[in-house]
Amino acid sequence: MSDRRLRELGWYPELEPMLAEGRKRGLQAARVMAASRTFSTLLAGDGRQLKSRIPGRLHHLARRGGLLPVVGDWVLHRPGRPGREGVVDAVLPRKSAIVRQAPGRAVPQVICANVDTVLIVTGLDQDYNPRRIERYLALVGGSGAEAVVVLNKMELCRDLERCLNEVRNLGCPAVLPVSALRGEGLDALAPWLRKGMTLAMLGSSGAGKSTLANRLLGEERQVVGRLSERDGKGQHTTTQREMLVLPGGALLIDNPGMREIQLLQETTTLEEAFPDIVELGRACRFTDCRHHREPDCQVKEAVASGRLDEVRYQNFLKLQQELESREKIR
């Protein structure tokens, strides 16, 4: 298998020494397309999809801080004989990971790994919520990946320019209005769709992620759900995470809609979600100012003078308190 083929699947040079050692033991490198507790679907450099078992040894190591395969991971595996599955031997170090607190449990949940760009997809209908976008930006901020906000269903928006400015003011440099249903605005995604680049889509159910995935694939592969007429909310049409290979060679990780975005202190940064507040905070009297009750706080002064939106400031305090509370529980 040539290194060029691996690079086309997102391989990065830092993993070369581990692959060289693995080859001495008859192991091969592959990328995780889908994973359950016991099995994974791997994408080999020659394009084959291979079923590979996740052994109990890796679960045992995970209890001591080791890694279990998630979608997007690079692994070393031992190929199976004809008609039999192979075995995952090791999960290689990640260059990025999207991590949240597992729903209902105070433990980390790795959503996907080795992502270059996260597409935060939100619909310009009942789904539109700048406060939720801020939360997604905080989630992505500590991941090692770049965030791009995709405002889908622009055909439904009565004041597109207002929404664009509102989201740009959240601090995300890339905000793209599109209509996945009509295929409009998708050319703007081209810089992030180069061969070997990995993208992950995050967003609520009904935001149009599956419709967007189908547009990028050029075929109706992902099931598209209908919105509830009562509340406009979508159903989970994507039921498991999977990595898809796009026609141009980029790789797209489609994720089920997220009802909960619980943040973790060690994997979250508010700097990407609130760059304006971070910049104002540099002029505060105290270097460790929390912008709450401290005197001579430039952030509070900006709120009082109208230079900083009160709702945005309150959401910052809410997320900051949430992260600090979780840190105390651990």
TrEMBL record:
Query: Do the record's keywords include Glycoprotein?
Result: no
Q: Boundaries of each CP-type G domain copy? A: 104-261
In this chain the EngC GTPase domain maps to: 113-259
Co-factor binding details: Binds 1 zinc ion per subunit.
Q: Which SUPFAM superfamilies match?
A: P-loop containing nucleoside triphosphate hydrolases (SSF52540)
> Which of this chain's residues are annotated to bind GTP?
G203, S204, S205, G206, A207, G208, K209, S210, T211
The record, for Pfam families, names: RsgA_GTPase (PF03193)
Describe, as the record does, how this protein assembles with itself and its partners: Monomer. Associates with 30S ribosomal subunit, binds 16S rRNA.
- Protein name from the UniProt record: Small ribosomal subunit biogenesis GTPase RsgA
